[in-house]
């Protein structure tokens, strides 16, 4: 039996704990129904133990975090949430995290919990992901970590990290599949009515949501709003730099610092989002969508979809287009 120990703190995100926790619990339920022993023992530790309040106000019961000094879990799962910053400044918490990680065979984080793994030195030189809204902060604080912000989850050796909140469910399903095989993982996904492997990565979030802005007066926010209003315009980096009244090099560096990704990558993501909305509406042809969203031709758009979302435009429309809500759903999953 593998022991899964969840580590949280005051101000943890409720779903960061309960989402993946339920995946492992359902794996236990289904294994028992099949006449097998439950594969997991589940524990939750936080602070001094007892009732720990999450960001939603709901409290979760926990063992004292000090159990990490003696426990030998197979997997240590670290939650994220608004309380991450305070936990990351707590030397005792980070010491317990390091101790628990040394004693565990596998370490995982959900959402912004990756910031805690990084603060504890557990991600140095490794690939990782985190909630998309934390990517700029993460890159600034931990440049030695190879951040992959578009991924739903990332495995680098014994360390697994997931993207924002519900991506912890995806991560837990991947862990179940690694431990017990695809059949059980697929059955758990079906029982929970989610994708075993959801199509696409964190690129499914809308680039129209402003990222954290650090430059005075919103920096490039107006430029991004204008670009979003006309995705088919000339949005090459030189053209954007000219609009901003800056040299190419200065613009590229300032944009990356403010937005957290290069101008070219942001433009591609914005155009991808425009194409997705058009495909979801369902009326226009693939070629027309490619032109109107700024890709120019359908092959270029197809390559962007495959690179960023892992699906073709045709497959995306089949899953998410109007009138197609029930197609292409893996493991009885919901339309996400």
TrEMBL record:
Q: Give residue ranges for domain HTH araC/xylS-type.
A: 221-319
> Which GO molecular-function terms appear in the entry?
DNA-binding transcription factor activity; sequence-specific DNA binding
InterPro entries from the entry?
Class_I_gatase-like, DJ-1/PfpI, Homeodomain-like_sf, HTH_AraC, HTH_AraC-typ_CS, INH-QAR
Q: Does the keyword S-adenosyl-L-methionine apply?
A: no
Q: Which keywords does UniProt give here?
A: DNA-binding, Transcription, Transcription regulation
Alphabetized Pfam families for the sequence: DJ-1_PfpI, HTH_18
What is the name attached to this protein's record?
AraC family transcriptional regulator
């Amino acid at each position: 039996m593998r022991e899964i120990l969840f580590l949280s703190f005051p101000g943890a995100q409720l779903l960061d704990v309960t989402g993946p926790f339920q995946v492992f619990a359902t794996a236990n339920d289904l294994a028992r129904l099949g006449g097998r022993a439950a594969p997991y023992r589940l524990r939750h530790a936080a602070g001094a133990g007892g009732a720990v309040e999450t960001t939603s106000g709901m409290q979760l019961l926990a063992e004292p975090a000090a159990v990490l000094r003696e426990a030998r879990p197979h997997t240590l799962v670290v939650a994220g949430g608004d309380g991450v910053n305070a936990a990351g400044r707590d030397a005792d918490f980070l010491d317990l995290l390091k101790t628990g990680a040394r004693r565990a065979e596998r370490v995982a984080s959900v959402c912004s919990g990756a910031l805690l793994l990084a603060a504890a030195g557990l991600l140095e030189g490794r690939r990782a992901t985190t909630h998309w809204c934390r990517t700029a902060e993460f890159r600034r604080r931990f440049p030695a970590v190879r951040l992959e912000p578009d991924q739903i989850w990332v495995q680098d050796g014994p360390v697994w990290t997931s993207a924002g909140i519900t991506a912890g469910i995806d991560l837990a399903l991947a862990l179940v599949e690694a431990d017990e095989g695809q059949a059980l993982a697929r059955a758990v996904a079906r029982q929970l009515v989610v994708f075993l492997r959801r199509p696409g990565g964190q690129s499914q979030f809308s680039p129209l949501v402003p990222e954290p802005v650090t430059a005075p007066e919103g920096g490039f926010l107006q430029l991004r709003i204008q670009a979003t209003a006309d995705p088919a315009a000339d949005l090459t980096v030189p053209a954007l730099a000219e609009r901003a009244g800056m040299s190419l090099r200065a613009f590229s560096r300032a944009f990356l610092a403010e937005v957290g990704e290069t101008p070219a990558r942001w433009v591609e993501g914005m155009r991808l989002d425009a194409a997705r909305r058009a495909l979801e509406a369902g009326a226009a042809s693939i070629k027309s969508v490619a032109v109107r969203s700024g890709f120019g031709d359908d092959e270029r758009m197809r390559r962007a979809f495959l690179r960023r979302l892992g699906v073709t435009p045709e497959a995306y429309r089949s899953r998410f287009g109007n009138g197609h809500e029930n197609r292409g759903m893996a493991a009885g999953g919901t339309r996400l």
